[in-house]
Specification:
alpha+beta, Butyryl-CoA Dehydrogenase, subunit A, domain 2, Butyryl-CoA Dehydrogenase, subunit A, domain 3, 3 domains, seven-stranded mixed sheet, 20 helices, 50% helix
Length: 549
């Protein structure tokens, strides 16, 4: 028997069996700063569970075996069912069981949104696709809470039981809610929607309508019901109404929702996204007639928060894998993590990750403090700012993290390829970059209190760094003048960096905040072009360790 031709050595180990919370100084720092310190024992418990090898493996399996559509059964009856790997159902059960879809509504109070955001951020490091239906369910809860006729739906939404069975509401242990807004001809311009809603009378859930039309993207078609937009006879050309569209009717029969196909997506492959037709499907009015867009926008502020949180979580995972690899790999006679240029790259990834975590958790706290008018205004303007910037920075960071692993990072056996594919969806879904930047301009132009809220937030760090102060003075001048649409991305990027710098200056180690200001706000800043082009003079190793203690 021939001997082996080589032995395997100088390979880093898999990053498994670690506590996602206890090993993350950045998350702990900013969760505490934003009022969630009392939740740390529970967050630590969850972090230990989510870092187990068998739980992390669920994320791989759910993407390796994506959902499949069954339109008909073997007898030719239409069923419109989506089949998932057991790993998906296990992930959903854990997400729902941890109240990631409803905890601020079940137990509102100081720090509840921040604690929920920390849980969501950790789950993103395991698998991001399963978070989609959880996010939509979370965002639907306050909308349904304002519809007394739909109280039964709201009550089942708050359940901590994941129930994937296709059953009428009365027989369900808990429900999830999806969304269907865009159509082929309109995309982000939902006012171009053509789906019609014809009044059918009053029934047990209120005003019932029959919907006829299509949705080009209906997220998570296995949910129990969907919030959709359609046009009634009384809606003006510029208005739409919002409806709750269940998969099963009260008598147990299938609703007339026909799934045409599942989208073949770049990433987010564990989650099903679909094209559907409504052929006289029964739906119930949510909110006021002709006020569907404002109703949906209330949800959008929450789904967009989760886009930023999800991206921040995936960014942390990518940065942690890069640092773990560098610690376990030797190059040119010494550990990769000790190579000066590699330390610069790793430190820059840590800077970007901590800044993303900081701004996302601060945004969650604004929701906790929404009774304060300034906090409410900050949530209004901060949501599109954070969603735009964090979700834009994510793919570039994941690509750099992949490069740290070299060829091994580019293979499907490593998690970096999946993480890289996962990130663009958060930038595209719930309003792409231009939509977010235009929303920022709209808020600044129509809601003056949003400028006041931003400047009040930024003033908290005034005097901590001269570069920060110079940028803040310039921003204040520009915000006082006319705002041009063509410059919206430039402005929103400046606002995002100022906000991130303010939070790091207040709460992060001084060296980290100094490095961020030098590389993002300094005169020779290069961070917008490439990671690792940091000025020297800081303990890059200590900064890098902020993503994986």
């Amino acid at each position: 028997m021939s001997a082996s031709t080589h032995e395997v050595f100088n390979q880093s180990s898999a990053l498994v069996d670690f506590n996602l919370f206890d090993s993350d100084p950045a998350l702990r720092t900013h969760a505490a700063a934003q009022g969630a310190a009392e939740s740390f024992p529970d967050l630590s418990r969850l972090g230990a569970v989510l870092g187990r090898a068998e739980v992390l493996e669920l994320g791989r399996l759910a993407n390796e075996y994506p959902p499949r559509l069954r339109t008909h059964d073997r007898f030719g009856e239409r069923v419109d069912e989506v089949e998932f790997h057991p790993a998906w159902h296990e992930l959903m059960s854990r997400l729902i069981g941890e109240a990631t879809h409803c905890s601020p509504w079940l137990a509102p109070g100081p720090g509840s949104q921040v604690a929920r955001a920390a849980r969501y951020l950790m789950f993103a490091q395991v698998e991001n696709g399963s978070q989609c239906p959880v996010t939509m369910t979370y965002a639907a809860a306050p909308v349904l809470a304002k519809a007394p006729a739909l109280a039964d739906w709201h009550a089942k939404l708050l359940s901590l039981r994941y129930d994937p069975r296709t059953l009428p509401l009365a027989d369900k242990l808990g429900v999830t809610i999806g969304m269907g807004m865009t159509e082929k001809q309109g995309g982000s311009d939902v006012r171009a929607n053509t789906t019609t809603a014809q009044f059918a009378g009053i029934s047990q859930w209120g005003s019932e309508y029959r919907l006829t039309g299509h949705k080009w993207f209906m997220s998570a078609p296995m949910c129990d019901a969907f919030l959709v937009l359609a046009r009634t006879e009384d809606d003006s050309p510029a208005s739409l109404s919002c409806f709750l569209l269940p998969r099963r009717l009260p008598d147990g029969s299938r609703n007339a929702i026909h799934i045409q196909r599942l989208k073949d997506k770049l990433g987010n492959r564990s989650n099903a996204s679909s094209e559907v037709e409504f052929r006289g499907a029964s739906a119930w009015l949510v909110g006021e007639a002709s006020r569907g867009i404002p109703t949906i926008l209330e949800m959008a502020s929450l789904t967009r928060l989760d886009c930023a949180l999800g991206s921040a979580g995936v960014m942390r995972a990518a940065s942690a894998h890069a640092l773990h690899h560098a610690r376990g790999r030797s190059v040119f006679g010494r550990p990769l993590v000790d190579q000066p240029l590699m330390r610069q790259v790793l430190a820059d990834l840590a800077l970007e990750t901590e800044a993303a975590v900081a701004v996302a958790l601060r945004l969650a706290r604004a929701l906790d403090d929404a009774a304060d008018p300034l906090e409410r205004a900050l949530a209004r303007i901060g949501t599109p700012i954070a969603k735009y910037w964090v979700c834009k920075r994510g793919p570039a960071l994941a690509a750099e993290a992949m490069e740290v692993l070299g060829g091994n990072g580019y293979t499907e056996e490593a998690p970096l390829a999946r993480l890289y594919r996962e990130l663009p969806v958060n930038s595209i879904w719930e309003g792409s970059g231009n939509v977010m930047c235009l929303d920022v301009l709209r808020a600044l132009s129509r809601e003056p209190q949003t400028r006041e809220a931003l400047l009040a937030e930024f003033s908290l760090a005034r005097g901590a760094d001269s570069r920060y102060d110079r940028r803040l003075a310039a921003l204040a001048r520009d915000l006082a003048g006319p705002l041009e649409e063509a410059s919206a991305r430039h402005l929103v990027g400046r606002l995002a960096l100022q906000w991130q710098a303010a939070l790091l200056l207040q709460h992060s180690p001084a060296a980290l905040a100094d490095a961020f200001c030098a590389s993002r706000l300094g005169d020779d800043a290069m961070a917008g072009f490439t990671f690792g082009a940091l000025p020297t003079g800081w303990d890059a190793g200590a900064i890098a360790a902020r993503v994986l203690a």
